[in-house]
Structure formats: structure tokens, C-alpha cells
Amino acid sequence: MSDPSPGLNSEQLGAYFALMEVSSLLQYAVDEHLRADGDLSYVQFQILARLVDAPEGRLRMTDLADGVVYSRSGLTYQAGLLEKRGLITRAPSPDDERSVMVTVTDAGRDLIAHVLPGHVERVRQLLFDPMKGRDLATLSGVLGRVREHMRATPPRSAKPRAGRNRAE
Amino acid sequence: MSDPSPGLNSEQLGAYFALMEVSSLLQYAVDEHLRADGDLSYVQFQILARLVDAPEGRLRMTDLADGVVYSRSGLTYQAGLLEKRGLITRAPSPDDERSVMVTVTDAGRDLIAHVLPGHVERVRQLLFDPMKGRDLATLSGVLGRVREHMRATPPRSAKPRAGRNRAE
DNA sequence: ACTTGATCGTTCGAATTCTAAGCAAGTAAA
DNA sequence: TTTACTTGCTTAGAATTCGAACGATCAAGT
């Protein structure tokens, strides 16, 4: 039900714009570093990092795509590039013949290990240096809650059920 | 001097990931609405919105590009699309013959006015509904400060000065 | 078994994006 | 003024991205 749509006050609007601008600028900055230091795009870094973090270093394509907020076809394309560079391998899953398990190779782990310190350093400089006091605690609290809320909120176009909807 | 690179603690890392994921999901959600309701991409909406906000409803291409964190050539492309749809006009600036002034048309203003309520509504539902108490105040304080810090921090690859650098 | 429907991943084509190169116009120094 | 450099924008071509269509596999229900 959530409140009879009063729009956003100017503080909310400012926070919204700031959020989008900060994430854009941050992504540009780290992307630049990743390319220079490891010839990786931000997306590729995300994929590898997520795999390194996963148990056994492997994930199904779909879970990986959901994790990095990315389309399946886009992931197929990037996985092709990463596989060509020997940073990951792909193999059909034993349990489910449809799905493909993606696994980081040692080369992939090495590359992430090589790039990570500089990456983290940039994030610290840009994002956390200007914070003070309880800023971090509040920020991570709020963002964590918002993230859960978003994950739980299905996209508005939540599948027109069968077919015959959508007049017009 | 900012601290001898201790990396990031796990709370910082979590906040960083949450920030990127939240902005991604939020952008997907509003993008979906904008396309359905006004046949606009998120970038196009940003361009128009920024113009509507500008004095006289016009801006130079470069300032517009910087404002939306976008490449110049990308903006040229999008401006072409928007002009074709009659939402903006382009004209050479009187003062500086090089630069191009972009202006929102009435149609452009109307479209933004049409789309804005739904847009804002989604942002409110996804981003602000799960907030409470002083969350908003802190968030906008922190993000505002971070944004200023980022704008002031030049990209690391701050122009190889003249030409003869970049061995290799 | 047999149909129906959902899920998984890829391929295809179109749209978007970036970088590099180029042109035109401004600025500054000689 | 002439030269050199910078700035503003566009063009050209390659790379990336997405959505729709597809083939294959699984999961139920009958």
C-alpha cells in the first residue's frame, strides 16, 4: 500500500540523483583501472570476482547472470571472451544437462589477485575516504535493506500470465 | 594522505557491492517503466530531464555530456534520435561557433511531464520505502559529500600532457 | 508413455556504446 | 599575422549489449 504517492521531496530527489551519479563515476574510475592493470572490463571483473567467491569456484550461468545483474546472452558473450583467455572454463552440469557450470581457472584467480589491491584502493579513495563517523554503518545498513527490498520486489511487468492480456 | 592502504574491511566491501547492485537494479526498474510509458531509455530521460532543469531549457553538448556521465559521441547519437522525434533542437551557439546548444522543445517538456510521476513513484517504492528515521538524511549527506569528492578527484589517467609519453 | 509448460543456454539481428580520427573554431605566443 | 595548441562536436568502425527466437532438457500432470 505504501503511502498515497506524494512524489519525492527535494531531499529524496537529491539523494536519488547523487546515488546514480556516484555509482556511475565510481564505475568509470574502477573500470579504467581494471583495463589498465589487467585488461578487464568492469563486467568481466565482476564475473571473475563472483566466481572466486563461490564455493569450488564455480556457478551456473544463470546464477552468475543474476548475480551481476546482466542479461543471459550478454553473459554468454563475455564467458566466451573469458574462456578464450583461459580465465574460466565451461562444462555441462552433471545433475542438470541443460545448465552450464562456469569455473575460474588458476589463471583467473591469479589475475583477480593481481588486480584486486589496486581496485580496492580506488574504491577506498573515492568512496570511503570522504566518509566519517557513523557514515559507513548507516550507509551499509540502508543499502543492505534497500537491496533486499529490491530483490524481493518483482519487476512491474511480472509476466502477463498466459497470453491474452495486453489489449491495445 | 588518506591512510596507508589497509584495503577494505568487510563492512566497506559489503557497502560497495550493495551500492553497485542497488543502482543497477534501480536503473533497470526505471528504465523498464520509461520505455513502456514514454518510449524513452534511461539515458534519454536523463538528457531531457537535465535540459528541463536548465535555465532557458538549453545546454551545450559538452556540459550535457558531463552532466549525465556520458561520452560525447554517445550524446551526439542520442541527440540525433531525440531531435528526430522532435523532443529537442540543436543550433550552433552564437558566442562560440564550435559549440552546439541543445534545447528542449515543448513536446519534450510534455513528455517528461507525462513520464515523471510514474518514474518518481517507482523510485519512491524501490529506494525510499524501505528507509526509516534518519536514513534519508544520512544517506543524502554522505552521497552528497562523496559526489563532491569524486567530481574534485581527477581521473588517474589525467592526460599524458603533451605527446611524447607512453613508451610502447 | 505423452503432452504441456517451464527453464537453461546459445544464436541471431538490431540498437547502443566507446575509441580513434578528423574537422572547424577559438586561444595564446611569437 | 602566423604558428601551435586546445576545445567542441561529429563521423567511422569496432565492440558490447539486449531481446526474441530457438533447440534441448527437465517437471508435472494425465
From TrEMBL, chains A, B:
The name this protein goes by in its record: MarR family transcriptional regulator
Domain HTH marR-type positions: 12-148
Signal peptide from the UniProt entry: none
Chain residue ranges for the region called Disordered: 149-168
Domain of life: Bacteria
Biased composition (Basic residues): 158-168
InterPro entries according to UniProt: HTH_MarR-typ (IPR000835), MarR/SlyA-like (IPR039422), WH-like_DNA-bd_sf (IPR036388), WH_DNA-bd_sf (IPR036390)
Lineage, uppermost ranks: Bacteria, Bacillati, Actinomycetota, Actinomycetes, Micromonosporales
Species of provenance: Paractinoplanes deccanensis
Pfam families xrefs: MarR_2
SMART domains: HTH_MARR (SM00347)
